[in-house]
Structures are given as C-alpha cells and as structure tokens.
Amino acid sequence: MSTTVLSNRFSSTFFKRPLWTAIATALAATISVAGCSSPESNDSEPADAQTENPTADHAENVANNDAVSTHTITVDTARGDIDLAMNPSPLVVYDMTLLQDLAALDVAVDGAPSGLHLDNLHSETQPEPKEVGTVFEPDLEALNAMQPQAILVGSRMAEKYDALSSIAPTLDMTIDTANIYESSKQRLHDLGALFGKSAQAAKLQNNIDSLITETKAVTKDSGTGLVVMVNGNKMSVYGADSRYGFIHNVVNVPIADDHIKDGRHGQPISFEYLQKTNPDWLFVVDRSAAIGEDSVGAKAVLDNPLVAQTTAWQKDQVVYLSPDSYLAFGGYYQWIQDLTTIKNAFASAQ
C-alpha cells in the first residue's frame, strides 16, 4: 500500500529526474521490507528485551475475549510465578471465588464444576460452561477431551494441583484468608490483567472500596461484633485472621473476643459462651443453608434463652451474611452483598 501511494504521487517527475527515480525506488523497497516485518519487532531495542514477559502488575489491555493472545505475562500465584499467554482458551475454573470475579469481568469460562449453589458464577453474556467434575474432584477424562489452555484453582481444589498441572498450565489462586482484602484485591487485578480486562477490574475494585468506606462510616463506635457459623445444631466462632476477619480488619467492627483460636472450621462454642461474651452485634453464617442441606435454620438455632440475653439479640442487631461468604469468600459479589448488608444494618440501628 505504501509503495502504491509513493508511485502515484511522484509518477509525473520520475521519468524526468532519474536520480529522484532511484531514490524513490530505494525508499519504496525499504518501506516494503518494513511492512513485511513482524509487528512484534523493534529495532530500537535489543533482541533479549523483546522476549521479556510483563508481570500482571504491568500488563496492558492487549488481549480480547475471543482468541488466545500472543502476549505472555507472569502471574504471581500461591505456588510462585507462572508465565501464561493472555486470554487462555479453553479455560477451566474450579473455584467459586474466581468464578465470581470472572463473571463480573465478563470472561468466558469453558469448564466449571457441577453442583454449585450460587447463581452469580457465570456471565450472562457468555455460553454456559461444560461440567468438568466437582469442586472437590476433577473429571480428568472431560479435561483431557477439552484440552484447556489454562486451569484456575483455589482453596478446595488446590490439593489436586499436581494432577491438574499434568493436563494444562494450572494457576493456584487461593486467597490468603488472614489478609483477605489485599489478597482478593490482588487476585481481581491479576485476572483483569490475564484477560485484558484491567480497566474493568479497576472499576470493580473501586465499587468494593467505595462500599468499604461507606460501611466504615456507619460501623464506627457502634459496638463489638462476633462472627458465628451455625452448622445444623453446632456453632463456632471466627477470629480476626479468618476468612471473616474483614468484619474486624476492614470495616473495623471491634471483635468481642480477641482470644479466639484459629481453625478452618472456627472455634466450637456453646450458648453459654455467647451469653458471657455478650457481643453488641452478631454476624451469622448459615452453613447448612449455603450448601443446600436440609437442616434447622440458623435463626431457629440461635433463638435460645441464653442468646436472648445478649445485647445483639435484644437490640435486633443480628446480621445474616450471604451464602457467598462461605462458598466464595473474597469474590466480587460476596464483597458487594455482605458489605451492603452490613452497611444497611448499622445505618438502620443509628
């Protein structure tokens, strides 16, 4: 195209000026060679500089959601740095937190676990993913048939990392529960970079941060709180370093008991414990309801004479967290739902 433009522009003078003809011909040849060169080449930089992979922190929005990108970035995972082509497809995801973030980013997921209990794990603009096992056990036959370009795991499926890595590049993006805000923020950022959605990821994070600011404004000086999980007729509490620690560390509700023992399933408690601890606010997770089990509801379990003596129960300051807080903690929609619920509850009490 460039050669043609040059020929048309100078045709009336080329035959009268042989020297100019030679110069123009050389110029056209140079442009032609440049036009045939790879768009990735850059003669102003050394060859080794061109092969360096940007990290997720420096990736631009260069990928689209329709094809695997030729750009590669380095992602900081729970198991170290992994280099991966941007916008991998087919994509398999075995974690509900990651599925929430990808749905909010409008990223297509080709394979996902079956039997999920949340309705915000899939972008409405994208095709439904195929079933490739459960959140506990992958279907290796289905994975081999799909030949994914990347597998994203976290939390429950992380223990299957080695088996999955033998099929496709696998990223363990498990969230650090002891620092859930910073960890989930980094994961959302990295997903945005990996799929060329950095601007959208920043917008989503701003939504979360704005809600945090609004929630902190109404929780200030409003009393102590305690996170209680009800599982059938059993109860446990969670401390500041747990997956529910954001209530104390992010929205700044002082914990009613700062001696709670860490544990994946919390510290078992009794009704007497709640009565003696006497929190101003109760934040309740109904595990049975979250996983679809038929059981006595958390509200019925807590309707007890000893619990009734607490300030939280007497002032109707009992906040029921979303099922997402158990199944997809740190996910975009979990943040939005639970922050909104907490903000509204505290605002109504003022």
UniProtKB/TrEMBL annotation:
It holds the Pfam family Peripla_BP_2. One of its GO terms (cellular component) is outer membrane-bounded periplasmic space. Residues 90-350 form the Fe/B12 periplasmic-binding domain. InterPro entries: ABC_transptr_periplasmic_BD (IPR002491), Bact_iron-sidero_bind (IPR051313), FatB (IPR033870). Gene3D superfamilies: Nitrogenase molybdenum iron protein domain (3.40.50.1980). Its main location: other. Keywords: Ion transport, Iron, Iron transport, Signal, Transport. SUPFAM superfamilies: Helical backbone' metal receptor. Residues 35-68 are annotated as: Disordered. Residues 1-34 form the signal peptide. GO terms for biological process: iron coordination entity transport. It is found in: Cell envelope. Belongs to the bacterial solute-binding protein 8 family. This is ABC transporter substrate-binding protein. It comes from Psychrobacter halodurans. The lineage of its organism: Bacteria, Pseudomonadati, Pseudomonadota, Gammaproteobacteria, Moraxellales.
